[in-house]
Write a structure and sequence with these properties.
This protein starts with a strand and ends with a strand. It is globular and about 45 Å long. 0% of the residues lie in helices and 58% in strands. With 115 residues, it is mainly beta. 33% of the residues are buried. Strands 2, 4, 5, 6, 9, 10 and 11 form a 7-stranded mixed sheet that branches. It has a 4-stranded antiparallel sheet with strand order 1-3-8-7, with no helix packed on it. It is built from no helices and 11 strands.
Amino acid sequence: QTQVVESGGGLVQAGGSLRLSCAASGSIFSIGTMGWYQEAPGKLRELVAAMTRGGNTHYADSVKGRFTISRENSNNTLYLQMNSLKPEDTGVYYCRVLAGGFESWGQGTQVTVSS
C-alpha cells in the first residue's frame, strides 16, 4: 500500500497563489502517473492535472495557463503551482498515485479562495 500525503493548502484571496505538494512512499512498485483532483463543495471529484513518470502532462481546461504540475521522481513527490486563483478553485485537493496497477489517494488538502 502506497502512503500519500498532501500539503500546502490554505486560504488565499482571488488572484493569489498556492503551491501544493504530494509525497508518496512505501510502494514496492515504481510510481507511475500522479495527479491532482479537486472536490468542490457539492460536486464530484474532478481531475485538475496529471503527470506521467516520463513527464507528459494533462490539464483540465479550466486551469490551463494558471496551474503548473511538476514532480520529482527521485523522491516520488508531486507539486501543483496554482496561480491567478479564482473562487471556483475552492475545494479539497486530493493526490492520486498509480503504482503497480493499484491506485492510492491522500486525505486531501483544503484550498479556499475568497473573492
